[in-house]
Design brief:
Layout (H helix, E strand, L loop, with lengths): L1 E8 L3 E4 L1 H9 L6 E7 L4 E7 L3 H14 L20 H10 L3 E7 L2 E2 L5 E7 L5 E11 L1
Antiparallel strand pairs: 1-8, 2-7, 3-5, 3-8, 4-7, 5-6
């Protein structure tokens, strides 16, 4: 009960993939357990976040950009890892501040998310990527 999801991104932001996770879980014969997700990257993160109002995702992206701007910002002149672009080291810093793995209870074959919760890849880099998320359901 292990699979991999590929999430395409188009620059900084939150990319919801709750629906593909739910479809995968629905196709399994296990109705109870713990879903573990892990992103295989050091410049992107995973979050459970509100999925009702897209302004939440916009505001979070703006907040983290303001908190950790690119290395072209004078406040980031102390960084030395800059050869992969001005967004690379800030992306690593953001990934350290947010989770790279999640655990979500599953009951009756469904993730036990709240009414307005969704599962997201958070892209911290500027250019498009194809992010890999490993999912494993541990029966319970």
């Amino acid at each position: 009960m292990l699979t991999r999801f590929e999430i395409p991104t188009q620059g900084p932001g939150l990319y919801e993939f709750t629906a593909p996770l739910a479809r995968w879980l629905a196709g399994l014969s296990v109705s109870e357990g713990l879903l573990t997700l892990f992103i295989q990257h050091t410049s992107a993160s995973l979050l459970v976040q509100e999925n009702a109002d897209p302004e939440v995702q916009t505001d979070l992206t703006a907040f983290f950009h303001r908190l950790v701007p690119p290395t072209t910002d004078p406040s980031m002149a102390y960084l030395t890892h800059t050869h992969e672009g001005p967004d690379d080291m800030p992306a690593h810093i953001k990934a350290v501040m947010m989770p790279v793995s999640l655990s979500i209870p599953v009951s009756d074959g469904r993730m036990q998310l709240g009414t307005w919760q969704g599962v997201y890849v958070v892209e911290h880099r500027t250019r498009p990527h194809r992010r890999q998320v490993v999912a494993k359901l541990l029966p319970g």
